[in-house]
# Entry
Amino acid sequence: MAAACGGDDDVAVERTAPDTTIVEDDVAPTTVTTTPLTTTTTEPAPAAAPRPDWLGTRVLQPGPDGLVPALPTPPELVDRRLETPDHLPPPPTQAFQAEVSEVPDDVLARSTWRAECPVPREELRWVLLPFWGFDGEVHTGELLLRADAVEAVVAGFAHLHERRFPIEEMRIVEAWELDAPPTGDGNNTTAFVCRPTRGSSSWSEHAQGRAVDINPFHNPYVKGDLVLPELATAYVDRTEVRPGMLTVDDVAGFTGAGWGWGGHWRSLQDHMHVSATDR
# Structure
């Protein structure tokens, strides 16, 4: 399954980091507004490579332990800056504005939600928000979140947007993807996924609607020899920061709202992962 490249030079620019507020409304979609605060950020060069035809199609074979071993990163993905596959119409402006609403029937139907999931349907929200792609353009992403997680997540993505942090793709995970064979090259930014924690039978924070994975390929899960996505080994070394890799400064919008970041964990590192409970 597909989980979760262009110019060489980054340009230091002065940007504004947002102080995010949300006005709640149980019926109409809510609009997020931001008040700017000055900060210095790095702007990625506006170039992106076409998506390889083989992306998401090369199934990886597990070893004797049932796990797919970590594998060398394909040359095309060592400095991954790919075009964004658009699933929704682009936003009208480059400004950050998020829309929050109850989950429409058709959106819920294509998600992983089912009646036995730990978060009731009425507590989920459909969040549409803009993000910068590696092409230097603004695209529209979608997330499913628990209602009490919306404010922190919107604040986190507003901060990333102001920093012009590039994201490859942001869409809701569909049910068929849960059982799809691994291809080790996915890079979808997502939140709610109704599945257990890795290596456990208990519900994950994603199933609770209170966690987000950002650019998984650029920010892999690493525990000993296990790397997920399996082809993301070029991103295990965090000393050479490339566009799309999360740093402490990038996740400040989430941590400032009280969320934890898996890049700070000790027994393992889940660089893609931010969550309300730091789990």
